[in-house]
Amino acid sequence: MRVHLKGIHKVRWRLASGKIATYYYAWRGGPRLVGDPGSPEFMRSYNEAIASRRRPAQGKLFTLIAEFRASSEFSSLSDSTKRAYAAYLGMIESEFGDMPIEALSDPEVRGEFKRWRDGMADTPRKADYAWTTLARVLSVAHDRGRIPVNPCQRGGRLYEADRAEKIWTEDHIARLLAVASPDIAMAALLALWTGQRQGDLLRLPWSAYDGKYIRLRQSKTGRRVTIPVGKRLEAILDGANRISTQILTNANGRPWTSDGFRTSWGKTCFKAGLTDDLHFHDLRGSAVVRLALADATVPQIATFTGHSLKDVEAILDKHYLGRDVRLAEDAVRKLEQKEKRTKSVKGR
């Protein structure tokens, strides 16, 4: 029986005698295989070459990357996060895989890593993700005593995400709901009325809803939140067909995949003419804004959405409410009411 060996590279070479010789390599650029194809010797050299390729070079950065992939810090990540890491781990292996571990203690190696990151300055988000991934690999290695220092600690960022103007207004929401399918509309309203992240909402089971509260544990922070369900959301949930264990499902009644939801969400926004670079995640910040406009306090908002007090204050101060004209109008009305009350007291 002939066995097809994947990836073998064949090269024909004319010898000085004029005879054509054929050489086989485990892969293009790989080690040369010995023996005739199909022979035990040939198979043995092929298997040894493949095994050596899969085995990370010892004493190199390759080793630390392999240990990171096998660590609990990596295995505990969500599947989507693992996929994101994989691309950047490949970049790091290609660029620095052969770097000796001892070199990581050299003060100049940080500059080398910085020059690599700065070479991607035209795509700052990519540069920051690559740097963050490298820093995480080295952080785990340092935490486990494999290296004395992490040369990528506190590297700074090239990309600054400014979501100051990125908030879903009532008009945006109305336009989305006007064209959205029932499954997309339910996702949008669930986000607006709970202030939770996309991943947590896509995984939210019906068992988390008891008719009065939604209880969940946030995957990113591990924080447990209990969310009182408002009348509008209650009507939506109680009127929904429970065709899956998950609350949110696609048009086929199956739980969403993150990629599938992202694609459908993007198509709906395009159909609604929402070209303002609005993200689903901005609904979380919009929920904070809506609660604040309803006179909820910072502690009340934090309890509802699961943000820390500091994060709620940062959202309200920096990203959203600082530019919301409705707050300014509300402030003027309160000032006018105060002055009216003061004049009334003085006139007595």
Q: Features of this protein?
A:
two-stranded antiparallel ribbon, hpI Integrase, Chain A
In a few lines, what is going on in this structure?
The protein is mostly helical and 348 residues long. It contains 15 helices and 4 strands.
Largest sheet: 2 strands, antiparallel
Structural class: mainly alpha
* Proper CATH architecture of the largest domain: Orthogonal Bundle
Biggest β-sheet: strands ordered side by side in the sheet = 1-2
**Beta-strand content estimate:** 5-15%
Number of contiguous helices: 15
Number of β-strand runs: 4
**Which fold name is given in CATH as the topology of the largest domain?**
hpI Integrase, Chain A
CATH homologous superfamily descriptor of the largest domain: Intergrase catalytic core
Q: What is the string of helix and strand elements?
A: EEHHHHHHHHHEEHHHHHH
Q: What does the average pLDDT come to? A: 83
Shape: elongated
Query: Under the CATH scheme, which class of the largest domain?
Result: Mainly Alpha
Tell me the span between the first and last alpha carbons: 109 Å
Unreliable spans are 319-323
Describe the structure.
- With 348 residues, the chain is mostly helical.
- It folds into 3 domains: 46 residues, no CATH class; 83 residues; 159 residues, Intergrase catalytic core (hpI Integrase, Chain A).
- Helix content is 51%, strand content 6%.
- The strands form 2 sheets. The protein has a two-stranded antiparallel sheet. The protein has a two-stranded antiparallel sheet with strand order 3-4.
- The protein is elongated, with a radius of gyration of 29 Å.
